[in-house]
Structures are given as C-alpha cells and as structure tokens.
C-alpha cells in the first residue's frame, strides 16, 4: 500500500515537472507586450452582501472600453438586483481605487456579464483572435485573488480546445481567477477564465471562454451605446 502511494506521488511530480519544462520552452525572456496596460485593465469585483464582503474578491474582470467591464456571469451570480457591486482597480500611479458598478447585461448560457461604471479608466484591453493560437502558444494572465493590490502575474501555454469550445490552458491559477483575462504574446485578449480543475497556485488546466465568443456578446448596443472595443 505504501509502495502504491509512493508510486502515485512519483508519477504526479514527474507529470508536473514535464508540464513545467514544456511551458518554459514557450516563455519569453522580456516582459510580454502590453503587460503594463493589461495589468491596469484588470480589476477585482466584489458583490457586497455583508460587512465582510470586501475581504476577498468574488472574481476578476477586464476593462473592454472606458466605463465597461467584462466578467463571468457566475461571478455576479443570480438574484443580485439589490446587491451593491464594487470594482477595485489600479491607477498608473499604483493607487488602488474603488468604483460602484451597475449590471448592464448578463448571459448565463455564455457565462458572461457586462458591468458599467462612471469611472474613467486609463486603458482597456485589445481583443485578439483565439483562432491564431496553436498548441504550445505562450499566454499570460493577471489574477486578482486578494484584490488588485496583490495582483498575481502568471504565464503558461495554450494546450487545445474543449468540446464546448472553451480554451484549455496550462497555467498557474488562484482562487477567484474567474473573469481574469488571458492574453497572447502580443498582449491581446484571447480568452476569459471561467474555471480551473486542479488545486490552486500550481500548474493546472484553466478553462477560458474564447474571445470569438466574447466578440459576439459585445456586438450589441448597451443602453443605446455601441461598444467600440479595440480590435
């Protein structure tokens, strides 16, 4: 029994080592393109339902246009009409600010939600093309587990598509990763994190909604305003 447990542990460590070595082959030596801008465009989202709601973020989001933030529908949840939605974000001067947000559109089937705020953001993400990804393509993300003040930068590689059309990525993940943007080597958005299937803070398979689906979600007008996302 002890031998079997030892063998399983050895195989697990070996598999993780191979994954890390493979990912290292696709890492870039310098800071990825638009890394600083995408860091500023990544926000933390809090659904305020009690006095301790600001202790840990409910999820993340990305600025897709000045005044508009994209996240997952499951981050917002159901029945939040009376809840207060707040977003925390960084300024270029590295000052953390809080803004009130309003839910503009939500699609539970696509697991996407769009928030609006009167706050002025300095940058927005640029939409890329997930169809240009191939197995082994470099990707990176900014995770807001404990809020934007403790934002985590992580990188990995694209490993394929799931049957449901989601992107499958081998990358380090963290709690409350949902709603985090996934960016390619050019710093363009290729997906939005939706779930992970491994314990956090180690190499895991992360699943993301492809940007091709996000484009369709953002194609319609919001309150009479046509979104002019960066393409």
Please state the CA-atom Rg, rounded to the nearest Å.
18 Å
- Written as H for each helix and E for each strand, in order along the chain, the element string is HHEEEHEEEEEEEEEH
Instruction: Give the helix/strand class.
Output: alpha+beta
Q: So what's the CATH class of one domain?
A: Mainly Beta
Poorly predicted spans: 4-30
* Fraction of residues in H or I helices: 10-25%
The CATH architecture of one domain: Beta Barrel
Count of extended strands:
12
The major sheet is characterized as:
6 strands, antiparallel, barrel
Mean pLDDT value: 77
Strand content: 35-45%
CATH topology of one domain: Thrombin, subunit H
Read across the widest sheet, the strand sequence of neighbours is 1-2-3-6-5-4
State the end-to-end distance: 56 Å
How many helices? The count is 4
User: Please, what is the CATH homologous superfamily of one domain?
Assistant: Trypsin-like serine proteases
Shape: globular
